Amino acid sequence: MTLGDAKVGTTVVVTKIEGDSAYKRRIMDMGITKGSELFIRKVAPLGDPVEITVRGYELTVRKADAQCVEVK
Predict the structure, then answer these.
(1) 46 SS3 class
(2) What is the CATH number of the domain that holds 28?
(3) Which residue range is the domain that position 54 belongs to?
(4) Which residues, if any, are the signal sequence (predicted)?
């Protein structure tokens, strides 16, 4: 399952980040790393963007970026 598929109100754990090295670095710089817990706060009406809570702060990610983060 990807971050983009997760339901609002659930807490998920990152298992893998896909993409090239520059893309992975950008995602990890936002605090989304393997093993981190993400709480899905909101999803915009059209599904883009997704608002999450990671490491105590709120973060908004585009749907395309969320599809590259595998969670369980």
Answers:
(1) coil
(2) 2.30.30.90
(3) 3-71
(4) none
